Amino acid sequence: MTDHNGPPLDDHQYTVSGLAAYESVYGTDFVSPGGERTTREILATLDLTDQTSVLDVGCGLGGAAFMMAREFGSSVVAIDLSQNMATEAAIRAENYELDQLVDVVHADIMTLDGHETFDVIHSREVFLHIRDKAALHHQLMSMLTPGGVLMFTDYCRGPQAPSESFAAYMTDFGYNLCPVDHIGQLLVDTGYEQVEATDRTDEFIAIHQRELEELSTVDLAGPKIAELKEGWQAKIERAESGEQRWGWFRAVKPH
């Protein structure tokens, strides 16, 4: 994104081999915690229909967008800043014959046009890449129709000052993390109504413990398996320490 301050996504976190590794853990078409199971839980709260227009910010490999189109008939504009992600998601949309409902675009949310275009904006673990959260949420609100719903999950941090190791982790990945309640207040300050900001870190830990156990069945080369296990264990430890948190956020644009 325009104010993303980390290394280029396609050269660092979202290389082609990196995407395959994430997908091997999260499930086909998914690259976010909880995979299909968590996505279903989120989508069940959105009252999606075949009349709903959705913007999926940071669509990844398209799992959520495909589910919205396939199961609800919703029209989805699915964007991702990663060219690798967008290219693969577009190929899959066509292969699944969903390309009439899912329009995959390589785009930056901070410069995307679309005033009052979308009934729902959905995102999973994406806004952590963006430094200027206030500008982000004003941009998102401008793109929602009156009464439209913003629903996203994101990595957050605890209220305490980051430890040296956690600060290094955020720097290495280009993450800009805030406490859960900070994001909730920012949504209120932006002008949203019915704001919900929920810390679901306990669930985050349980999900990653389950996925760590499932890694033993993943068909990847030995070194990659070891790397994934190390990464998942580190996520669990950061969350258990209270430094890394997992936030769920829902807000409604006023009529």
Q: Point out poorly predicted stretches.
A: none
Series of secondary-structure elements, N-terminal to C-terminal: HHEHEHEEHEHHEHHE
Q: Strand tally, please? A: 7
CATH topology: Rossmann fold
- CATH architecture assignment: 3-Layer(aba) Sandwich
The count of domains is 1
Give your account of this protein's structure.
This protein is α/β, with parallel strands linked by helices. 43% of the residues lie in helices and 21% in strands. Helix 8 (201-214) runs antiparallel to helix 9. The two termini are 29 Å apart. The mean pLDDT is 92.
Key structural traits:
255 residues; Rossmann fold; alpha/beta; seven-stranded mixed beta sheet
Please specify the SSE layout and strand pairing:
Blueprint: H1 16-26, H2 35-43, E1 53-57, H3 63-72, E2 75-80, H4 83-95, E3 102-106, E4 118-124, H5 133-143, E5 144-157, H6 164-173, H7 180-190, E6 193-199, H8 201-214, H9 222-241, E7 244-252
Parallel strand pairs: 1-2, 1-4, 2-3, 4-5
Antiparallel strand pairs: 5-7, 6-7
Helix pairs in contact: 2-3, 5-7, 8-9
